[in-house]
Amino acid sequence: MQKNILKSGIALSELGLGCMSLVTDLTKAEQIIDCAVENGITYFDTADMYDKGINESVVGKALLKYQQRDDIFIGTKVGNRLTKDGSTT
Fold first, then answer.
1. Which domain of life is it from (predicted)?
2. What is the DSSP letter of 86?
3. Within 10 Å of residue 15's Cβ, how many Cβ atoms?
4. Closest among 54, 44, 37, 42 to 76, alpha carbons compared
């Protein structure tokens, strides 16, 4: 499921795990992310606004156990703003 990116030699999975709806419970999130990694997923998409900022922390903590950090890629988005009612601008 790997594909090389440009001429860099970086191998990135053709499929990624979109983490927008990932659970906030760390144990359950780890199970989902572990399953993804075990099945060849190396790209995880998150954002600062997912779960009001909790998502990036959960994804990061769930990926800590993987010592081969050079083989895991995280995409994120920044600049989103949450209003008092929880909506984004």
1. Bacteria
2. S
3. 13
4. 44
Q: Which helix (H) or strand (E) holds 3?
A: strand 2-5
Pairing between β-strand 16-18 and β-strand 10-13 as defined by DSSP bridges = unpaired
The residues with which 45 forms a beta bridge, in sequence order, are 18, 75
Which of these, 83, 69, 79, 4, lies nearest to 37 by C-alpha position? 69
Distance CA(47)–CA(53), nearest Å, equals 8
Backbone angles phi, psi at 48, to 5 degrees: -65, -20
Does the pTM surpass 0.85? The reply is: no
Determine whether 50 is an active site residue: yes
At 78, the amino acid letter reads V
Q: Which amino acid appears at position 82 of this protein?
A: L
Beta bridge partners of 75: 45
User: Which among 50, 58, 59, 62 is annotated as catalytic?
Assistant: 50
